[in-house]
Amino acid sequence: MPKQNTICSNPVKKYIEQAKSFHGYAAPGIIIGGFMVDLAYQHLPEGVLLDAISETQVCLPDALQLLTHCTVGNGWLKVIDLGRFALTLYDPNNGNGIRVYVNPAKLEKWPEIKNWFFKLVPKKEQDTQRLMKQIQEAGSDICDYEKVKVKLNKVTKKHHSNLGICSRCKESYPVADGDVCLGCQGKAPYLNK
Amino acid sequence: MPKQNTICSNPVKKYIEQAKSFHGYAAPGIIIGGFMVDLAYQHLPEGVLLDAISETQVCLPDALQLLTHCTVGNGWLKVIDLGRFALTLYDPNNGNGIRVYVNPAKLEKWPEIKNWFFKLVPKKEQDTQRLMKQIQEAGSDICDYEKVKVKLNKVTKKHHSNLGICSRCKESYPVADGDVCLGCQGKAPYLNK
Description:
two-stranded antiparallel ribbon; CATH 3.30.1330.130; 2 domains; homodimer; Wheat Germ Agglutinin (Isolectin 2), domain 1; 9 strands; 193 residues
């Protein structure tokens, strides 16, 4: 298989630069994520505004945020942390989509990627240069894709329709959460409030 | 109070363009979020690499992702959905941080922002131009800030240290999740797998 030179119609190098700027560094997972998004698009109809799911919190949300119009803050990207290195792009009107995942069986051909993916080698002993070379040579060769039908009720945007003022902190909150906001119910991650 | 012309040292206009490009449109919440991040930075020490918390899934994660090095995919931004329009930037070494929130009492001066914030007017009847004007005039005038101490054990990066192969789907997953992966335990958002 010839080496894949583009990700979503742009040079791989350009994507790596974008990834560095947004993600802070060219993490292996975000580069693989780029090839995964590219593979999904190859099997999706053009001209449809798609929504996205990342099945992990790690790296893939950033690949999706860089390469699609879906972000966490606009609600078109949902992170459903199943601990699987997989992502889905789908039509929000009917749930039809393409799911792309790393197939562990396919990593046998790429020992450095396998070492990184399964954390078989301590980070310090990792040969980063060889790893990045293998990632770019492999492209989406380490992935598989499948058609999926997304359960739309599981991924629809949450609308906090009825907001009120929390009687304790005096901030706004969805009244459906209870008498006081979730923060004042003890769910805030702070020691002093 | 004079109108605030910059967000994190860049012209407000530039931030609005970035927000459009990343978030898809210049949503009121992402513009307010920009002023909130700016206010937090004013009260934080310089030169410290900070982590971030968004207390809502809506808009604020994108403001943080645009203006800080914290993203969902690199793990330095945590979305803890308490339904409050608030964000925190903090030192991950000691948990000391600044939390910024919209103070509903301060919205009385800005009727269009109040209408939007509490959804008092249907979106179609909203005067978007007046709303955006008020948002830019108000800047961080509608916000308050406070010192917080973040519970670091609540926000530390999750590391999936031991990965195995799920006996059902044959994909990688954190073995701590059980005999099969969370997806195969019925948590996947798909109808056909």
